[in-house]
Amino acid sequence: MERGPATAAPRSPAPRKRRRKRHEMLRIGGGISTPWFIGIAVAVFALLLGVWWLITATEMVEPLFLPSPSEVFESLRHQIQNGQLWDDARVSVYRVLIGFALATVMAIPIGVLIGTYRVWEAAVEPLVDFIRYMPVVAFVPLTILWSGTGDTQKFLIIWIGTFFQQVLLIMDNVKRVPMDYVNLGYTLGLKDRSILARIIIPSSAPGIWDSMRISLGWAWTWLVLAELVAATSGLGYRINTAQRYFETDLIIGYILVLGCLGLIFDQVMKFLSRRMFKYEEAR
Amino acid sequence: MASTPKVEVRSLSKVFEGGDHDVTALSDVDMTLGDNEFVSLIGTSGCGKSTLLSIVAGLQEPSEGEVVLDGEEVVGPGRDRGLVFQSYTLFPWQTARANVEFALRGEKLSKGERTKLAREHLALVGLEQFEDSYPHQLSGGMKQRVAIARALSYRPQVLLMDEPFGALDALTRGMMQELLTRVWEEHKITVLFVTHDVEEAVFVSDRVVVMTNRPGKIKEEIPIDLPRPRAHEMLSSPEFGELYGRVLESIRSEAMAADTVPAGASR
Ligand SMILES: Nc1ncnc2c1ncn2[C@@H]1O[C@H](COP(=O)(O)OP(=O)(O)OP(=O)(O)O)[C@@H](O)[C@H]1O
Ligand SMILES: [Mg+2]
């Protein structure tokens, strides 16, 4: 608003040099509202879908290499109707959950222990680090030799692929617990076990949960790998047979399904984290 | 001053053994804390104040010498000594009240009694309104107040404070100092208070102990015979000014030697 003296002759408005304020979203660290966030995310998906459709509609690429979106969705619809998608997904989800749970249940106590006591770190960390660098793929033949091509072998591969990584991630989380929290526990007369249970574990829990979320993604990767190599059921197995019959639409459809499953699992983990660690939000 | 000392530090030395060279943090420190006395420990950065405090707390072992509490040698941490850390040590996963209650777990109290005691001590530091707030919802000064409430709640005989107001702005700091002296005057407890702020040291203490640069030794002890209760108006009194000058002079020569200037020296 112009607030010049009332008697003055109307002045021409000063040249508007005011810098245009950048939108909140475009600033470093700026906030964003949920509708905008979802809107942008959906738009990017839609855009990619559009590009895909355009490429196939103009027949730039042979359908054998890249079928159109409608063909892919049609084949997925077919798989849903005959119940095969459901069967495949159920088997794979089951394998991932069990394999991942086995790895996690073992990794948490070991990771906490080696993050807390240097003696245990000396005993375990170098070994874990060593095994971690062995390519999981190389274990596939070995695990088949040990346990055939059934569920057990899938659990084993998932376990090998996630357990060792988890142990190190958890150790790092535990090490990041401020030493003064522990010292406070000592000045309150707590014994080591109470300090572990009441201070170290709650303090590192949000970080550990986040590590779990990340390693769940890897569990999926290793499962599909194992199913591609040798399996008689599961999403990876279906992709493998589809390749034999040149069913590119089915392969792409299943890859999309795998992406969706991963996204759903990730979002569930994130949601639970927000519920359990409410106090973390403002950080 | 009290006749029998509450805490005695006897020819205490601490050497940190490093890879290529050892660091002598404390060398031959002798000092006493009278019963219910409020003593400030002031010294330049790195002179070993925190080290001394954590040895008295029993969190570190001395290389030589000993700490004696009520005639008995200190061999580890215990609930007879409470420590307020320089860093924020409230657990982020607990509310202010739960943080205080955490310290009361060791007592044989019912849940109700614990809650009541925690509430009382939060009220003591003026935070009864914030008992259900999480640390991230509290300001730095409020967090340190909760930490003080927590340290007082289980009635330790000695309260050790490591620059508890170090991270606060001057105004909040002033209010915290007044709060602390008021709480101490009501509570009666032996306090060893580490600071590098001259004004703060003179204002809150019965006695100021000045340390030399590293390796830390006791350089000088200056009794502060200002009347209690203390109020901030006293800061402009000539008596305060005189004591302030003495402590500043003492610490300043150390700071010059160490080429660092302590807070408060610029005024
Ligand atoms: N764990 C440790 N290992 C090796 N050196 C240490 C250790 N802790 C402290 N020191 C050294 O001992 C000396 C005294 O440290 P201390 O933390 O007690 O100083 P301070 O007086 O509290 O300093 P400030 O005022 O900066 O907090 C420093 O030189 C420090 O580097
Ligand atoms: Mg210190």
Shape of chain B: globular
Q: How far is the first residue's CA from the last residue's CA of chain B?
A: 31 Å
Helix percentage range of chain A? over 70%
Largest interface: A-B, 20 and 26 residues
Taking strands numbered 1, 2, ... along the chain, how are they ordered across the largest sheet of chain B? 6-7-8-3-9-10
Work out the strand percent of chain A: under 5%
Bound molecules: adenosine-5'-triphosphate, magnesium ion
Number of strands of chain A: 0
Averaged pLDDT of chain A: 91
Give the SSE string of chain B. EEEHEEEHHHEHEHEEH
Q: Mean of the pLDDT scores of chain B?
A: 90
Question: What is the radius of gyration of chain B computed over CA atoms, rounded to a whole number of angstroms?
Answer: 18 Å
Content-based structural category of chain A: mainly alpha
* Biggest beta-sheet profile of chain A: none
As residue ranges, the low-confidence spans of chain B are: none
Q: Spell the H/E element sequence of chain A.
A: HHHHHHHHHH
| Fraction of residues in β-strands of chain B | 15-25%
